[in-house]
Design a protein that fits this description.
This protein has 238 residues and is an alpha+beta fold. The chain has helices at residues 9-25, 28-38, 61-70, 121-125, 160-194, 201-213; strands at residues 58-59, 75-77, 83-84, 90-92, 95-97, 108-109, 112-113, 128-134, 140-145, 217-224, 227-234.
Length: 238
């Protein structure tokens, strides 16, 4: 857990809406060509299921609902909380999968997923993605795959139909994620206005520092299915 510099609700909402429009209008044929050219094939290394490779597994509301039925204890508030009000309470746009002490997913066993048939959406489309991201030079452009040349094999032969299915699934995930994020921003905006609250970066930073030093606890309100669910996180649990 680290302190991050957060944007205003209005800025975050506007950027998410712009990103959603970009995802929706991104050429499926161009994306399919990229997928086909890369020819990615999974080698079952399971690195993507660990913190060695991925910081956390963010869950769409529908995925979080499935995990709650399998094991409610497998959910954690997603890290990098978006907002903190003047009373020191944090707000985050969804849940993430819990990890074991070694950094691997709670559902990973002997390099295999124990809930593979019910795995989250992001696990189904990974390593494909579709969002704007800065490269090593700082230039912002679309990114369509994660961990290029760091896992799996490439330049395998993929059928056109397989590429098209990957594109549809990836775009569907990105759209669902952005719609959830937009709803979160709107919900926070209403909640703050109704209760005379505001995001305070100084309070955010102070509470994170206190938490990381130990002996403190923080309240986190996780946005899930149109409402905020309260969680209390104690030092040593993050």
């Amino acid at each position: 857990m680290v302190s991050v510099k957060n944007k205003s609700i209005e800025t975050g909402l506007a950027e998410a809406k712009e990103e959603l429009e970009g995802v929706r209008t991104y050429s499926e044929s161009d994306f399919s060509c990229i997928v086909k050219e890369l020819g990615f094939k999974c080698e079952l290394c399971a690195r993507c299921c660990t913190k060695e490779f991925n910081d956390h597994v963010f869950l769409l509301d529908a995925d979080a609902a499935v995990i709650k039925k399998i094991d409610p204890e497998a959910l954690d508030p997603a890290p990098y909380y978006e907002f903190c009000d003047q009373k020191g309470r944090f707000y985050v746009s969804g849940y993430a999968l819990k990890t074991k002490p070694d950094g691997s997913c709670v559902f990973l066993e002997n390099k295999r997923c124990k809930i593979y048939e019910k795995r989250p959406s992001i696990c189904r489309v990974y390593p494909y993605m579709l969002h704007r991201e800065a490269d090593e030079t700082g230039e912002v452009d679309w990114r369509q795959i994660s961990g290029l040349n760091e896992h799996g094999s490439y330049h395998s032969e993929l059928e056109d139909s397989e590429c098209e299915e990957i594109v549809r699934g990836t775009k569907a995930y990105e759209e669902a994620y952005l719609l959830q994020l937009i709803d979160f921003f709107k919900a926070v905006q209403v909640h703050f206005e109704k209760n005379s609250l505001k995001h305070v970066q100084r309070t955010y930073d102070k509470r994170i520092r206190e938490f990381l030093k130990g002996g403190a606890e923080i309240e986190i309100f996780v946005y899930h299915e149109g409402r905020f669910e309260k969680h209390t996180l104690h030092s040593g649990e993050a």
